Amino acid sequence: MPTPTAHDPESIFHSVIEHVFMPPELPQEALDEDTEQKVNVALCDNLIEAAQDFNQIVPPSQSPLWTRMIKTIQLTRRAATASFKEAILQRVFSDMAIGGMSM
Predict the structure, then answer these.
(1) Neighbouring C-beta atoms of residue 38, cutoff 10 Å
(2) Any long-range contacts for 64-68 (C-beta under 8 Å, 24+ apart)?
(3) Are 41 and 51 in contact (CB under 8 A)?
(4) Range(s) of the domain holding residue 41
(5) Could you report the per-residue pLDDT of 58-86, keeping only the tens digit for each?
(6) How far apart are CA 79 and CA 71, in angstroms?
(7) Is residue 64 in a domain?
(8) How many domains does the chain have?
(9) Is residue 40 one of the residues assigned to a domain?
(10) What is the signed CA dihedral for 72, 28, 83, 19, rounded to 10 degrees?
(11) What is the pLDDT of residue 84?
């Protein structure tokens, strides 16, 4: 498959599928930074959606755990969408509580 580009949603989708279900072939051509960011965000979006769907069918005693996991993935997604500027990353990390998540 050709290297995905940031402007081709289909190639980003294929990249997500390959990332999740297929082992990497080394050496592989590195994605450009913009495309890698879009693939990471797409992975987070898929995880968030699946976790939210799953949270609706777990026993009520497990729901708080899944709510925290969803919040963690959302924070990860937020970090993935941010450029790697120190101030933005500090803000993302400051939203995370030491030893767990604040709700």
Answers:
(1) 24
(2) 67/103, 68/100, 68/101, 68/103
(3) no
(4) 9-94
(5) 999 999 999 999 999 998 898 888 766 66
(6) 12
(7) yes
(8) 1
(9) yes
(10) -30
(11) 62
